[in-house]
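G., the chain you wanted modeled:
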Amino acid sequence: MLNEQNNYKNEHNETKLLIIGNGFDLAHGLKTEYMDFIGYLLDNVPDFFEKIKTKYDVLSKSAYINIHFLDQLFSKVNNWINLEENLANSISVSNDDELMLLTEIFNEYLLPYFEDYVATQVNKVIITPVFKTDFLSSFTDVICFNYSNTYERLYFKLPQHKKSANCNRHICYINGKALPNVEKSNIVFGCDEYDADNENITWFNKSFQRTLKSTDDSYKKLHGKRMSITIIGHSLGETDHHIIKPLISSNSYNEIKIYYHNHEWHHRLIHRTMAMLGTNRFENSFISFKDIKEIVTTKPHQHDDAML
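Predicted structure as C-alpha cells:
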C-alpha cells in the first residue's frame, strides 16, 4: 500500500513539459504557414501591398532591402524560418533609415494584420483533436511557440492544470498570444541579430521584444527543474535554441521525446538536436525520436517543410 501511495504521489507531482511549434497547428489542418497569411492578405486586404510599396519606394535606393528582403517578405514560397533568416540578413547590412522603415512596416502593417488573421481566422476554425487526448492533456507545463490557442482549445482539460501558478494556466505563450481587437499587442516576431550600440537593430531581437511587450516568461521557472520533456511540431531551429537548450541540457538524464512526422524530418531533427547540444551531451542524453503516428487518433493533415 505504501509503495502504491508513493507511486501515485510521484506520478502526480512529476513535472511534464510539452513544447509545441507550428507543426502542431498544421497537423490540425490550420492555415498557419507563412504563405497562408500572405494569401489571406492578397484576397482580403487588396491595398496592403500598395501601402507597403509606397513606404519602401521612398527609399528606392535601398537595393538590398528591396530585393533581398521586402520582395521575399511578400513571396508565397516562403516559410517562417526563411523569413527570420531573411530578416537577420537584411538588418545586418541596413543603415538606420532602412531599419526604421522595417520597424514601421512590422509595427504598423505586418504584425497587426497577422495578429488579426490568427485571432479572427485561425482561432475560429472548428477543429477536433488529432492526438490522443489523454496523452496531450497530461502535461503540467506547456511552452507554446505558436500565437494560436489550438492546444488550449482542444487538450487543456485536466483539473490539475487549474492549480497553475504560471501565466495562462501553465501554458506559456512565449511569443505572445493573438487576441482580437487589442490596443497593445504582445506578438513577438524577430531574430537573434543583436547590436547593443544600435537601437534600431535591437528592436528586431526576440528577447528585446519579449521584455518590451511583457510576454509570458514563466518558462524561466522551469530552469534547473527535473522533468520529462516532449516536443511536437517544433523545428528546433537555431533561432529558438537559447530557449530550448537550457531546458534539455538540465534534463539530459530524464526522458526527452521528440516527435517527427516523416522520414526527412526524423533525420533533420536528429541533426538539429546534435547541433544544439553538441555531440558529447547528445550521446549521453536520454533523447528518443518518435514517429508522430504513435500518438495520433486520426491521420494528421499533411504538410511540408513549412511546418516549422
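Residues 1-12, 159-169 have pLDDT under 50 and may be disordered.

Shout if anything looks off.
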